[in-house]
Write a structure and sequence with these properties.
heterodimer, A: about 425 residues, alpha/beta, Peroxisomal Thiolase, Chain A, domain 1, 2 domains, three-stranded mixed sheet, 16 strands, globular, B: about 90 residues, mainly alpha, Non-ribosomal Peptide Synthetase Peptidyl Carrier Protein, Chain A, about 0% strand
């Protein structure tokens, strides 16, 4: 790694998660293996369904935006505003000078943007026979609404972009945040993602794919997401937002900022194989690119926050890629899939998992895959952290994997500061 | 103030509370929407919500409502139907 390169650190974390909005408490919950997945009804009868899902409570950005403006935002944008505000405060950059704000970026990922507004529009038109829609429908459901509202909130005048790369959306946003700071476009970037895609129509689309984990009751719902388990039943949908303050390292050091982790490497690739079935070869390209970018050796890596969705197809491929790359080191490589507790936040999953990985590095703690079920033989060969987390003291380097439908892969490498 | 006006004011107060931070007692006929911090986007969404409550389409106002009284004028033609609907349900 060339020493002359501008380096990027994480100085602020903001979270709206099924576990809550307090990062410390949420991380403690994850370390204890506590799942926030429950049984939830979506839609209105007769157009309704009940699924295991991970839902955020008390999502209301009115205390930040005022009731008037808040009422003009879809839930996904409200989540992003809440997460961004928390990250901003956490980073302690409220005194960011005007000229720096004008250069600072907002880069967010989302899969489907304002899905609730979209569904409400269809309900109004086709079920209620209304002749017109809310005049704010377009600006509430457009994918870049969340990023735009965050930029307005803090007066950030640099690039304001939205990445829609299915389940790798937020990871792609964070990766580009690193690249932009390195390139000198800006010194501060708010990067992450938001997803509030649990209306009936979206849920039915997922149900049709037959990839959602079934759950007969609350207890079953809580334990329904079992990545790498022999009896895994599929993925569990979740919602939420996580936003990281990325900052040029010298700037952060000069102001005495708390540094959670250095975002030392990013790697991107495409499987170019199949619209849903992942390929280890594509994942390996992203993994190797991230490690090369970080200037890291294989034995530096002490934790992988896996994409681990708990689908029959996806989990073995991811473990295969890790086995192929880490070889003899793989059996001692701690791996977990925190989706077992916060669900799959789709376009925001790369953000919440980046946040968790940054916290893992900061605290020297490895969160678990929540279950203790028997593992799928096809998923063996790494050190699965099951049931509860491990306090490992220090974590030199950790990876966060995001692998999307469409074959897009992003791997983020976090180094202890 | 006549009874229908009271009814329309109550309705406006009920709906406007979701679109601004003003106290209910500040929502009086002479109050301007600007004073209540209801901007053009909030107003558009609020008119749509009023239609939802009334169960009808309010005619597109030829001039943008400026005051609470202007909003009352928009909804008053429908208050009787709303009262009838409430008493029959």
């Amino acid at each position: 790694m060339p020493d002359s390169r501008r380096r990027v650190v994480v100085t602020g974390l903001g979270l709206v998660a099924p576990q809550g909005r307090d990062v410390e408490l949420a991380f403690a919950d994850l370390m204890a293996g506590r799942s926030a997945i429950s049984l939830n009804a979506v839609g209105d009868a007769p157009h309704s369904a009940t699924i295991a899902s991970a839902v955020c409570k008390d999502v209301d950005a009115a205390p930040i935006l005022g009731r008037g403006r808040n009422a003009t935002l879809d839930r996904v944008s409200q989540m992003a505003v809440l997460a961004a505000s928390a990250a901003w405060v956490d980073a302690g950059i409220d005194n960011l000078p005007e000229e720096e704000r004008e250069r600072s970026s907002v880069l967010l990922g989302t899969g489907v943007g304002g899905a609730q507004t979209t569904e409400k529009g269809y309900r109004d038109l086709f079920l209620r026979n209304r002749s017109r829609l809310s005049p704010l429908t377009v600006v509430q459901c457009m994918n870049n609404a969340a990023a735009a509202h965050v930029a307005q909130l803090f007066g950030l005048g640099g690039a304001c972009y939205t990445y829609s790369v299915a389940c790798a959306s937020a990871a792609a946003a964070i990766a580009d945040g690193v690249r932009r700071i390195r390139a000198g476009d800006c010194d501060v970037t708010l990067a992450g993602g938001a997803e509030a895609a649990l209306p009936y129509g979206v849920v039915k689309a997922w149900l049709s794919m037959q990839v959602l984990a079934p759950a007969a009751d609350e207890a079953a719902a809580r334990d329904s997401c079992r990545p790498f388990a022999a009896d895994r039943g599929g993925l569990v949908l979740g919602e939420g937002s996580a936003i990281l303050v990325l900052e040029e390292r010298e700037r952060a050091l000069s102001r005495g900022a708390r540094i959670y982790a250095e975002l030392a490497g990013v790697g991107s690739s495409c499987d170019h194989g199949h619209i849903t079935a992942p390929l280890a070869s594509g994942q390996l390209r992203a993994l190797r690119a991230a490690l090369r970018d970080a200037g890291a050796n294989n034995d530096d890596v002490r934790y992988v926050n896996a994409h681990g969705t708990a689908t029959p197809e996806g989990d073995p491929v991811e473990i295969d890629a890790l086995r192929q790359h880490f070889g003899d080191l793989a059996p001692r490589l701690p791996v977990s899939a925190t989706k077992s507790m916060h669900g799959h936040l789709m376009g925001a999953s790369g953000a919440i998992e980046a946040l968790i990985t940054a916290m893992a590095v900061y605290k020297g703690m490895v969160p678990p895959t929540a279950h203790r079920s028997e593992l799928d033989p096809a998923c063996l060969g790494v050190d699965h952290v099951l049931g509860e987390g491990r306090d490992v003291g220090e974590l030199p380097l950790a990876l966060s994997n995001s692998f999307a439908f469409g074959g897009s892969n992003v791997v983020l490498a976090f180094r202890a500061p | 103030m006549s009874a229908p006006e009271m009814d329309s004011l109550s309705l406006i107060r009920q709906v406007i509370g979701k679109y601004c931070d003003a106290a209910p007692e500040a929502v009086v006929p002479e109050a301007t929407l600007a004073d209540l911090n209801v901007d053009s986007l909030s107003l558009a969404e609020m008119l749509f919500a009023l239609e939802d409550t009334l169960g009808t389409s309010i005619a597109e106002p030829t001039e943008r409502p400026q005051t609470v009284a202007d909003l009352q004028k928009l909804v008053e033609p429908f208050m009787g139907a709303l009262a009838a609907k409430a008493s029959s349900s």
